[in-house]
Sequence to fold (375 residues):
Amino acid sequence: MKVRGAVLTEMGLPAPYATSRPLEIVDLELDGPGPDEILVRVRAAGLCHSDLSVIDGSRPRVMPMVLGHEGAGEVVEVGEGVDALASGDHVVMTFVPTCGACAPCLAGRAALCEPGAAANATGALLSGERRWHAGAAVRDPHHHLGVSAFAEHIVVSANSAVRVDPGLPFDVAALFGCAILTGVGAVLHSANVAPGDSVAVFGLGGVGLAALLGAKVAGAGTIVAVDVVADKLALATELGATHAIAAGPEALEAIGEATRGGAQHVIETVGNASVLADAYAATRRGGTTVTVGLPHPEQMLSIPAVSLVAEEKTLRGSYLGSSVPARDIPRFVALHQAGQLPVERLLTHRLSLDEINEGFDRLARGEAVRQAVIF
Fold:
């Protein structure tokens, strides 16, 4: 079938993207679903900083690629062997297809699925196949993290989709596939925040504000929000932050005062090694620093090695919020529907596919939290 999609052919083009147009909206041919795959009509797709990191070259991927990894839509067709999903189901896509049979999957660590990671690295689906075709004049595009949500229709592994309540608006539903799963999961699964604990969140994009919402759900006592953008600090306060601190030279001292010596749990979402070092420094003795950001592979982290022992600090990574999508997406949706996760507050802009480059300019300037392409 013919599909319009946003294709990135070259990383590192300069901003403003409204001028350089790194994402080209083109007509593509999309094969039907193979075994264990589904065809989805995309209804909404979120613009995430992880997409921007591919555009600007700080997160290298194989090119060309139909970008986008956070989306929701409606199942149109299922391939052979798909029994858990049916045409008409509303689904949220998740950017790690989980095989369910490798050692991490069997240990309950779906985010570390080995076949899923291998497929994502090569730009293929979990099956190893590619379903995009661009015509004889150019190379066929790759899939982005098994999803490629910036297209009208997509083929994904059935293991990349989770069925959700059809009453959930698609633009809100899309956020559960990345921002909510990552941010809330980092707090509940990776940091294991307990009632009354102190939490600091560095970076207030979609993932960071989701982490803040997760801290509220966990019953955290002191919640410190840290960012360079005043509007995001104001929104964080509205969403439950007890302290809003502007990032900068005096931030660590201010965090220390707000938390009486450092936060028990610090969530870093920026994807920058120097910010992660500050997040670690803002963590109290015996506390835990959790990083979900994805810095450029060449960035190196420098921390006092002795502090890991002498201060019993823990530094850990969290991919996909250490979540199990099939378990946690319905759980987080239920919290949203109960009024405990006001996810809709994170949606600051809605746009068309043709406006996507302008959307990434807005994201790069820090003027948006989560934007959704509406199909």
User: Anything to note?
Assistant: The chain is about 30% helix and 25% strand. The mean pLDDT is 96. The domain at 182-318 is CATH 3.40.50.720 (Rossmann fold).
